[in-house]
From TrEMBL:
It comes from Streptomyces pharetrae CZA14. Residues 4-180 form the Pvc16 N-terminal domain. InterPro entries: Pvc16_N (IPR025351). This is Pvc16 N-terminal domain-containing protein. Residues 225-235 have a biased composition (Basic residues).
Length: 235
């Protein structure tokens, strides 16, 4: 899911015209060594914090059906996570960096969600909203100064971007639907020692099947006469 959010952000920033103007969009950690190797204008989208939104955690399991309406799997509810990014602009002059950062800010604040056309993989399959919060106050994540200190670099102008995305639940495949009846065999044997052939219980393809989807026992005629025992009186 994380790489799919990365791809959605890359596509969103690409639509703003950054890539068309020769600006790279990368997801590397902006360490001091990394910054020293940069030679082209770059927008760095660095993921530094991942936390679950426990309030939105669901329970139970949903059912997955095929095109014929048969149950094929059960899936636990998705779990929601908050991904926090540090977005920075890198160029030869501070003015150019500020221009790039302004262009990124205008692109991100123009939308509250990642558009569905930009989603891939499980995010596209789930069809759920991927929320986007740019430059908002977030008291429960590390401060930008602490992030820069951990990276070993100097403090730099940056944007905080938080994405709330679902992680697909676990899917468990169920047994295929029953299409044939059970075969009932008797232990009795014929005179030649050959086993009696089994009798298959028919499977009902109706909207109101009997117990377990099978037909009930076949109707019989009058009950057979009770076997006589020794001492029984003759009528």
């Amino acid at each position: 899911m994380i790489h799919e959010v990365d791809e959605g952000l890359r596509r969103l920033l690409g639509e703003s015209g950054l890539e068309a103007s020769g600006v790279e969009v990368v997801f590397d950690a902006p360490t001091r060594d990394w910054a020293a190797r940069r030679s082209a204008p770059t927008v760095c989208v660095f993921l530094y914090d991942i936390r679950e939104d426990a309030v939105r955690r669901g329970s139970g399991a949903g059912e997955v059906y095929d095109t014929d309406g048969h149950l094929v799997a059960r899936r636990t509810p998705p779990r929601w996570f908050e991904l926090t990014y540090l977005v920075t602009a890198w160029a030869s002059r501070p003015q150019d960096e500020h221009r790039l950062l302004s262009q990124v800010l205008a692109c991100l604040v123009a939308t509250d969600t990642l558009p569905a056309r930009l989603l891939t993989g499980t995010l596209a399959e789930l069809g759920l909203t991927v929320a986007l919060d740019t430059a908002g106050a977030a008291s429960d994540v590390p401060a930008a100064a602490d992030v820069w200190s951990a990276l070993g670099g100097e403090l730099k102008a940056s944007l905080g971007v938080r994405v709330r995305a679902p992680l697909a639940g676990v899917t468990t495949t169920v047994a295929p639907p029953v299409t044939e009846g059970l075969v009932v065999r008797s232990a009795a044997r014929r005179e030649g020692g050959e086993a009696e052939p089994g009798r298959r219980l028919r499977y009902l393809e109706t909207s109101d099947p009997g117990p377990e989807g099978f037909t009930g026992p076949r109707e019989r005629g009058a009950a057979p006469a009770r076997r006589r025992r020794r001492g029984d009186r003759q009528p």
